[in-house]
């Protein structure tokens, strides 16, 4: 029973390690693919309601984050490090 559990745990660890390595190696390619797909979808903005909804939501979320972090910066709200007292 313990041997089965250990062997399955080793298999899962190897799969996660190989996935992490392949993700690290292919990160530049994934970035270029995402950029190409986003550019293609921007050309279809007027034709597809689903794409226009996705782009509108993305723009709204980015605008909200910009306003939020600008507020924090202007009012000098900084995140305190709770571990500094240890």
Automatic annotation (TrEMBL):
The leader peptide range reads: 1-23
Alphabetized, the UniProt keywords read:
Signal
Q: Which domain of life is it from?
A: Eukaryota
- How is this protein named in the record? Uncharacterized protein
């Amino acid at each position: 029973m313990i041997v089965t559990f250990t062997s399955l745990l080793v298999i899962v660890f190897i799969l996660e390690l190989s996935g992490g390595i392949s993700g690290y190696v292919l990160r530049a390619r994934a970035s270029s693919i995402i950029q190409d797909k986003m550019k293609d979808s921007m050309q279809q903005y007027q034709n597809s309601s689903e794409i226009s909804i996705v782009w509108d939501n993305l723009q709204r979320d980015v605008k909200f984050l910009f306003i939020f972090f600008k507020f924090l910066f202007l009012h000098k709200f900084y995140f305190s490090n709770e571990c500094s007292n240890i």
